[in-house]
Each structure stands twice: as structure tokens, then as C-alpha cells.
Design a protein that fits this description.
The protein is an alpha/beta fold. The strands form 2 sheets. The protein has an 8-stranded parallel sheet, with helices on both faces. 38% of the residues lie in helices and 14% in strands. Helix 4 crosses helix 5, helix 7 runs parallel beside helix 10 and helix 8 runs parallel beside helix 9. It is globular, with a radius of gyration of 18 Å. The structure holds zinc ion.
């Protein structure tokens, strides 16, 4: 059973005309399970709002209050990319709360995994600054609360952009292993270098896979098998959270990566194996700006979690990036030698 969380309030986060991170993305993402024919294997989960206490494990209370006031006053542009509207505060609390609701439902044994069709997305949001379409770092709130309860959390980020906010929040926190595969080199947000491995108390608990434009699915799978799997085996996560952006798809207008929905299915299958048992896997929607690619990629990745053979596109191969995997493997070996 797969739990899918969404809420009409997410559409009230209004980014204005022409913005790629638009409300219609959610409908496109939610068509995925239908297109994949998942039917009875999916159950809707109603998210609750995250509490101030839960949010404040990541964001200072004065930041949260300022954001609430900004939205209540009508919102507006925060930076060149990031906007809030009057509905963004409630949407944000629900987007972060969806993670808490999913964890609670999975702990009650109600599903094998959860997919959160939420917006605004979260992984660029820093503790004290909105960034890159993100206001509250949804996945970080879930990971921080799990860590507080003594859990060991793997955050795997396959969004095309580096999750700079998530990395910064857990930079020196050995309770959270942050793994990101992303496009790198003159590309937003510019962070996520291979040499960035975490702070002095958490060296190796950040693992970056900075891929060149044009990278294909075969390179992602190689990285998951040869670099990420051994790191996960050492870390022994008790929960697996995924920053599931779908903008690495070749049709995406914002990126230069060349994945297909078939690749997302293959990645989802591998990432599910990183969880210690069924019911310890939560996927948070991050980016993904081509509506058709969102539908097929969400559908294919969720179908893979349920072992349903839905593969609207073949896996891709032949792009650059194998050298990044080799360099990452060498670097893990040198970290372990210290
Ligand atoms: Zn992205």
C-alpha cells in the first residue's frame, strides 16, 4: 500500500503568472499513479500542519514569524525566483506537516511508503532564508524531527538541483546522511561539490554526486550501486526520505540532464532497498517543471515501489558522468582510510 498526501491548500501558494513552480504541477504529479494503474494500491493521506515546535527544529522561530507576517500582509517577491502569497504560510505548514503525517501513518503500519505531492518545495530553503522557490525545508523538518527521536535518517536527493538548504542544515549532524545527485557547473544553486563531505563532527555524512549536463540514467544507477549503497550500508538508516524532484528528466525546461521516467523507476527500486523495512520510506515532491514528464516519472517511480510494471519510457544511457562516479568512489575510500 502506498500513501499519497496532498491538499487543496497547496494550490493557494500563488507564484504569479509564468512561474515554472505553478499549482498545475500537483495535478500532473497526481495523475502519475492513475496513469500507472495503481488504483487500489494507493490510499490518500490527509496532511496536518506542522507545529511551531516541529518547524523550529530547523527554522528559528523569528524566521517563521517573519514569514507568517510577510504572507499575511499579502506576500510578494522574496528574491528573483522565490515568491510568497497570502496562502503560502498555510501551504508551507501543511507541506512540512505532510512529512509528519506520513511518518505517523507509516509507524501505525498503514503503508509501505508515502509520496507527498506538496508545494512549495523545500530543499533549497536555508534555516533562516527562503531560496529557489522554497520557503520551509519540508524534508529537513521531517529528518530533524526523526533524528530528535533517535532515528538515523538517510536523505536522498535526486532533484536535478543540489539541495543546498538540506545540506547546510545537516552539514555537521552525524544523525543524517545527506546524498545528492545533481547537475553541476554553472548551474543553480552552485553548491554540491564532490569535496563537500560534511563538517568536522560529520565527515562523510554529506555525499555529493555533481554530474555534468547531459548525464543519463546509467550513470545515476552506477552511482547508486557503487558509491551510495556502500555508504548507506555503513550508515545503517532507520528511515529513508527522498527529495524526489523530477527535473532531471530530459524534457525538463530548466535543466540539462537527460533522464527518462524509466530511469526514475530504476532509481526508486534501488532507493527502496536502502530502507531497513517496509514502511520507512517517504518521497517528498521537490522540482519537475514539464507536466507530462512529471506524470510519467511520478507514475513510473511509484509503480516501481509497488512492483507494478509501468514503464512509459526506456531507461537512458551513454551520457557523461562516469568519471564523477569514479572520483566519488575514490573519495569515499580515502575518507574511510582516515
Ligand atoms: Zn530542482
Amino acid at each position: 500500500m502506498l500513501l499519497v498526501a496532498t491538499d487543496p491548500a497547496f494550490e493557494q501558494h500563488d507564484t504569479g503568472p509564468g512561474h515554472p513552480e505553478r499549482a498545475r504541477r500537483l495535478a500532473a504529479a497526481l495523475e502519475g499513479p492513475t496513469a500507472a494503474g495503481l488504483g487500489d494500491a494507493v490510499r490518500l493521506l490527509e496532511p496536518r500542519e506542522a507545529t511551531t515546535e516541529e518547524l523550529s527544529r530547523v527554522h528559528p522561530v523569528d524566521y517563521l514569524e517573519a514569514l507568517e507576517r510577510f504572507c499575511a500582509a499579502g506576500g510578494g517577491d522574496i528574491d528573483g525566483d522565490t515568491r510568497a502569497s497570502i496562502g503560502s504560510w498555510r501551504a508551507g505548514k501543511l507541506a512540512a506537516g505532510a512529512g509528519m503525517s506520513a511518518i505517523e501513518a507509516l509507524r501505525r503500519g498503514e503503508g509501505d511508503a508515502a509520496f507527498l505531492a506538496v508545494r512549495p518545495p523545500g530543499h533549497h530553503a536555508l534555516a533562516n532564508r527562503p531560496m529557489g522557490f522554497c520557503l520551509i525545508n519540508n524534508i529537513a523538518v521531517a529528518a530533524a524531527n526523526l533524528a530528535e527521536q533517535g532515528e538515523h535518517v538517510l536523505v536522498l536527493d535526486w532533484d536535478a538541483h543540489h539541495g543546498n538548504g538540506t545540506e547546510a542544515i545537516f552539514w555537521d549532524d552525524p544523525r543524517v546522511l545527506y546524498v545528492s545527485a545533481h547537475q553541476y557547473g554553472s548551474f543553480y544553486p552552485g553548491t554540491g561539490a564532490l569535496d563537500d563531505v560534511g563538517g568536522p563532527r560529520a565527515r562523510g555524512a554529506t555525499l555529493n554526486l555533481p554530474f555534468p549536463s547531459g548525464a543519463t540514467g546509467d550513470v545515476y544507477l552506477k552511482a547508486l550501486d557503487e558509491v551510495v549503497a556502500p555508504a548507506v550500508e555503513e550508515f545503517v538508516p532507520t528511515w529513508v526520505l527522498v527529495s524526489a524532484g523530477y527535473d532531471a528528466h530530459r524534457a525538463d525546461p530548466l535543466t540539462g540532464l537527460r533522464l527518462s521516467s524509466g530511469d526514475f523507476a530504476d532509481m526508486a527500486r534501488r532507493v527502496a532497498r536502502f530502507a531497513p523495512q517496509p514502511g520507512r520510506l517517504v518521497l517528498f515532491l521537490e522540482g519537475g517543471y514539464d507536466l507530462d514528464a512529471l506524470t510519467t516519472s511520478v507514475g513510473a517511480s511509484l509503480a516501481a515501489l509497488l512492483d507494478v510494471p509501468y514503464r512509459p519510457e526506456e531507461a537512458t544511457s551513454g551520457g557523461p558522468g562516469a568519471k564523477v562516479v569514479e572520483a566519488a568512489r575514490d573519495q569515499r575510500a580515502s575518507l574511510n582510510a582516515i
